[in-house]
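Task: fold both queries, return tokens.
Query 1:
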Amino acid sequence: MSQDRHGDDLAFPDRGRDANGHLGHPHDDHTHLGERDQLAGAGWSVWTTGQRQARQQRGSRYSRLSVEHPAKMLPAIAQHAIRAYTRPGEVVLDPMCGIGTTLVEAVHLGRDAVGIELEPKWASIARLNLETAAVHGAPGQGTVHTGEGAEVAASLGSSLAGRVRLVLTSPPYGSMTHGQVRSRRDGAQAVEKYAHVYARERDEKVANLAYQKPEALLGSFSRILAACRPLLAPGGVVVVTTRPYRKDGHLIDFPGQVAEASRRAGLVQVDRCVALLCALRDGELVSRGSFFQIIETRRLRKAGIPVHVIQHEDALVFTNPASEQEAQAA
């Protein structure tokens, strides 16, 4: 990525930043996306969501158990998407909610939230985080359902059909991620990795997308999104956050694969934005790369491969066509 601001401040010079360093959004909480320019300009091309470190963003609003999940969504990314595509009182759904970042940020912003999580452990932590949000005075209400995403979404049709304004989620791209690091300073014998796997039980691994081969993972994710479509309100939006990754030194366009899986679910892509994981300071990028990202990058560079630390997630934005004819036309 370049170090430019991509014109954000220049395009709207009178639009300030909030306490988290986010640029103001052209759509406020009183305007639906479909009501202005048919989604044109619905979001900035670059979301400045990495101004603070993840630990600072979570602060005391999340249980300490949350750190055990290997691939948590950055709270600022959830905040940006929820502010941009919903208004207070509307419903946000995350069919793969993990420890509930989407839900927590939604209820703090006055939205109601529904989460679905396959693994009981993460579902319990998500409920605990919602209870913490309520203690902190969050005005929205949140619930978490345990089970497979597509099956539970289908079962919610009687209560949620046509009510969800935003589906916000992030699919896994592998059974192991960067996780947490314990070093000699922490009493370890050497540098050790922990909190870097999703499931340990055999039954959970069978259904967990993180343990499926790429083709099966994308098919399962497509089925989950297809099951969510009947729950969307007219003009509802789906935002999927994901990132590219490397395998054997090669960069894999996982966002492109996820976009194709979403289209197969019947959704129509209308935007592809960059949600920064790094900070912007006086026009310069401040890296937030993990220990293992940096080590791997150094190893590949030493081998002569000109790689860079990935400092963003792709935010893919979709709408739900009203008919199959509309979907085919799109």
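Query 1 returned. Query 2:
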Amino acid sequence: MLLPLCWGRPPAYRRCRCSEHRYDRDPAQHRRALLALADDLSARLRASDQIAAGVTLTVRYADASSTRRSRTLPEPTQHTVLLARTAYTLYDSLGLQRAQVRGITLRADALRSDDRATRQLTLDNSDDKPLAIEAVADRARARYGQNLLYPAALAVTRRPSTGADEPGGRG
């Protein structure tokens, strides 16, 4: 279940945006949850014309303790791919093996207006295609609904034991 957080201030005065995933599923789903959080967070950043200069990952455990890791991004962004890569790196740095994770929160920090965004030019255009696809997906979501387009890794899957459909981290 994705929960938007940081509701205390009006949108123009927010300094961070968060997405949280709470679950009682098996730990193999953590990477999918991170992708769902990055997708949700980046869509909300683009909708509010903001970019994030940093990312913070908070992992809550069954014993009510939590671990928090932050990273400053190489360049401020609002794109799913870049936020998800950073989230994966932060999660992997925790070295969790048998921890009973109960919740994951991904927060975009140091927000600023996207008109102040700069981007390093490269000769490799492989990163341009996902960024262009996001713009098209945002327009389609605005017109037809949020659950129309999302990363394939978040598609509905079948449980072999029950045969029931389970939403893939989107809620």
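Both queries returned. Flag for query 2: DSSP finds three helices and seven strands in the chain.
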